Amino acid sequence: MREEQPVRYDQNRQCWDVFRYEDVDRILDDPETFSSNPRLASAIDLPPEAEQSPILETMLTADGERHGRLRGVVEDWFRPRAITQRAERFEDIAADLLEDAIDGGRMDLIDDFAYPFPVIVIAELLGVPSEDRPQFRGWSETLVETPTDTSEAALEAFRQRQEQASEELAEYFEAKLEDRARDSKDDLISVIAEAAGEERLSHEEALGFCMLLLVAGNITTTNLIGNAMRCLTAHPAAMERVRTGEAPIESTIEEVLRYRSPVQALARIATRDVELQGMSIEEGDTVVPWLGSANRDPAVFDAPDQFRVDRAPNPHFGFGRGTHYCLGAPLARMEARIGLNALFERTADVRPGGERLQPVRSAFIYGVQELPIE
Ligand code: HEM
Complex ipTM, two decimals? Predict the structure, then answer.
């Protein structure tokens, strides 16, 4: 595809797929031409009730000045220095989880560790009880789901599921924001409630903020940890080098982000007519830059289909690029490092349990639902 049809139109999904590194780079680097705001899409007809949805009021779907204003509200909390200060607490969380999980020598890496770990971390940062995490999982999975069955009935059921999850999540955070507006604490919900109180954020924006922070960072980080273990168990020599410290854990994590990217694709809307690889993209068209494909482009990566734990340089798009570059990247990298080190310390040998693996139910997210190990 990357070679023969680097930019192609998919009639069914009504969007342009873009596969090459140089084109993905160009799209992410030019937010004025390739907007993140789905309201500009000519193929998407949003029902009036969805127009006011907090999901559409986040930095992820904002452009220009508004995007900068939203991102600025919480940026300081996610800087590497702020995140590093919390490393010890995160190490304790990982240790406690593994102590409970490694029972009888068998565990499910996803259910017992890779899912709860980032959720507990973000719940603590936000300031919500991590015991609510079974609910978070249901909501998050529904919100990142993409429909597989395109029949009218299935699409309607899908839309209803998404609406219900977003309503429940909004209700949940509404109560928390009210609480912090009265009684401020040292947590992200208080920062967001304060910005809303000073009218730097609208009510929908404040709600969208809480929802985005909860959802953006958990399924993705779960899959980074899960995908890392899948890469390493499939490459025992690499596993040995990482375990013994011969290969750095940091470059290993970067290689997993490239080789098995948890976020495979993004979406943008063309704001003007534009040409890409000789194809004419029209204003209002949806454009899908495939990060996972660009990350294996031989024009940029030497032997791209090889998993090399010490690959350098490694300019992958695992966290995107440009103005929307992942806000949580320093946190996700630290969680992966702490999580993998904790697993290495407490297990002598990790082998996949052998059951058939089921992919996550989303076209854009790459990972498995369960990963038994022994
Ligand atoms: C944006 C990936 C973890 C919060 C993004 C984008 C990608 C990405 C590709 C760009 C979206 C775009 O350009 O449209 C990942 C991966 C993660 C991860 C692979 C884990 C391995 C996290 C965590 C958080 C987070 C832990 C925080 C709790 C965000 C936010 C944005 C974002 C708020 C939107 C930034 C903006 O629009 O300016 N992420 N992410 N992510 N991520 Fe992450």
Answer: 0.97
Closest CA to ligand 1's atom 2: 319
Residue having the nearest C-alpha atom to atom 42 of ligand 1: 326
- Cα–Cα distance for residue pair 230/211, rounded to 1 Å: 29
Class of domain 7-373: mainly alpha
Mean pLDDT of 114-138: 89
Q: List, for residues 15-60, the tens digit of each pLDDT value.
A: 999 999 999 999 999 999 999 998 888 866 666 666 667 777 889 9
Q: Residue ranges per domain, the chain? A: 7-373
C-alpha 320 – ligand 1 centre gap (Å):
8
Strand residue runs (E) in 151-238: none
| 208 Cα to the center of ligand 1, angstroms | 14
DSSP per-residue codes, 63-107 = -HHHHHHHHHHHGGGGSHHHHHTTHHHHHHHHHHHHHHH-BTTBE
- Ligand 1 geometric centre to CA of 214 (Å): 11
Residue predicted with more confidence, 138 or 206: 206
